[in-house]
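Fold sample X.
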Amino acid sequence: MNDQFTLPDGFLWGASTSAHQTEGGNTRSDWWALEHAGLTDRIEEPSGAACDSFRRWPEDMDLLAGLGFTDYRFSIEWARIEPSPGEFSDAAVTHYRRMVEGARERGLRPMVTLHHFTAPLWFAERGGWATPDSADFFARYVEAAAPVFGEGVDHVCTINEPNMVAVMAAVLRARHGGSGSLPAAGLPLPDEAATEGLIRAHRRAVDTVKSCAPHIRTGWSVANQSCLPEPGCEEQAAAYQHPRETAFLEAARGDDWLGVQAYTRTRIGASGPLPVPEDVERTLTGWEYDPKALDAALRNTSATVPGTPLIVTENGIATADDDRRIAYTTGALTGLAQAMADGVDVRGYFHWSALDNYEWGSYRPAFGLIAVDRKTFVRTPKPSAAWLGAMGRTRVLPTGS
């Protein structure tokens, strides 16, 4: 491979956020209710005002554009647009439409995610994705949100990490006295009914988006396990990976693109997933520091759904040491360049996250390229933000070891 790898024209180069993790005050959502339900073993603190991005989104976009990024992936909040069943907020739709226009005005191409983990509380109280009519409700919301993405948006992500949404459904069932238990390592099995509902909802959402705006390229993003089997444990790895990842990749056949989200690897032994070894570097989430996970995820996804273009919709590291963020991302981008040089069709890269934000129970895991003061909400770009943003101008990736 050459010493430099130049990205092709049109390659998406951006950072990602989600509404609930940055906006603040998302009081009508299921996650807001969970944060205040006393699940203290998993939720250390509520999201509260988050990054105050519901008001400060212009500043977030100004920073990203000024740093050199050409794209911005953000989500719109179903609970704001449809706070009660069949009750739609014109103000919320107008707000998110203004965000799309604001991104365009700053030279940022917006990728809009329709569902990023959070749903209206009323939807959850009806049974969420496991109910037979969940896809109908989601399609109704997508149609109501069409004015947001109908113009000026080229890429729509229907559902972020549906496999993790289905896993969360299983976790909540186990914690509330239902069947099932939580494993000591790795992920629980996704809830089967929620899995089926999410796949139906994705297909309905794709059809709804296309009917409103045929030019939009649609897909969804999957949390990649990047399984690393011990010698002789390949079958165990495949058995672990299929319900937690592969089934969701296969559901994307025929989509315009498929989102790859990778952070670390899952080690698999003879009995299944193994705990993170004690002698390896860990991130603030407790995950193993493993930049090579992205390369593995891209190659596995490409082999599972051949012919479907890929977009890295999330990749990053939770660390308070920005030098380690740069080192990790250098390794991840080296793997991205190697995969592309070997023929893997990758159309974009979005770093997680643009901001230090609420990480589903705590503000401690610092994934952001931009620090956010928890009291004043002052934004301070880190050295990694300038370093990564500059690649949006040069279009040249690192290819070192």
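Fold sample Y, listed below.
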Amino acid sequence: MSPVETFVVVGGGLAAGKAAEALREHGHRGPLVVIGDEQERPYIRPPLSKGYLLGKEERDSIFVHAQEWYRENEVDLVLGTRARAVDARAGEVELEGGRRVAYDKLLLATGSSPRRLTVPGADLDNVLYLRRVGDSERLKAAFTEGARIVVIGDGWIGLETAAAARTAGAHVTVLGHGELPLLKVLGREAAEVFAHLHRDHGVVLRPGAEVERLTGTGGRVEEVVLADGTRLPADAVVVGVGVTPNVRLAQEAGLEVSNGIVTDAHLRTSAPDIYAAGDVANAYHPVLERHLRVEHWANALHQPDTAARSMLGEDAVYDRLPYFYTDQYDLGMEYTGYTQPGDYDRVVFRGSTAEREFIAFWMSGSRVVAGMNVNVWDVVDPIRSLILSRAEVDDTRLADPDVPLDALLP
């Protein structure tokens, strides 16, 4: 590989920042360009719904690197500029304004965008989403003592913003589509833990809610109207109904796209010299033997190292198990592994769900396929080892807190 090759990264999040770091660490000495459509240098998104939103973290803490890091490592940051197109044949990225940036290798770390609400009134002021740092700051301004906050969506973002709003003293109603928050993700027993958590903190949960329209005067939202005629007063509405991967560039460039940009285990796309990482990558996972697109911080943190090494010609494979975490009120949780409805037949609990101090294991036959530790710490490594070992485990021993997790390993 010639040292004068130009590597380009499109994206402004954690994956883009870590890719630039990994490329320099693994020996790329040629030109390195990072193109982001935000004015901010690459930053980390979890604090936007956690510490930064709660006022526990300073703004500077969200950035992947200090400003001077980019100068010291000769990374050309092109910020506040949208990549308009990728010409895979010519090896060029076209920017808005017409500038073309040539590349020898390209990494697409374009992330995802919140799904927008499509009901009448969805364009009123104070209908808020959470993806960018400015969104977090708008939420923080809206979450005040006595404010009436309606959260549409009871997934992770919906629940984390509800917790932040309640912590700030707001009155919070969460509108869920299903019977329980996170039911589809966690199954009934674990979902009930989060339902009780929020009710115990004064959040009103409305399951099976269907939003018909938002109303307001002077261009500002004042009310959420449900299909059953219920009218909920709202000083602000938070929408957390999922995200969609930002695949337009890849799609228009002719890359294979299916629930994200499809890659192999090396994070190579269907086009030569183009790679993808982070939220947007639907990557083949050699351990789980399926394509997987993971919208969590750990993926954006670790995938870029594999992408960088692949771009540099190494035989690197991304095979880490998915991991994510949440902090809500006094509950801290870590989840390791991957499962979905139909992949498991039961959940085994170790500890007390009532006291919100336990580990849950998702089981397929006698094997652990995923684990979630709630207010129990330093167990992610043995949970990961249990999953990867594919060991046959007895439910009784798994549920017994007196049996060390390491003792269950073959």
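Sample Y note: Residues 127-239 form a domain with the FAD/NAD(P)-binding domain fold (CATH 3.50.50.60).
Also: The two ends are 43 Å apart (CA to CA).
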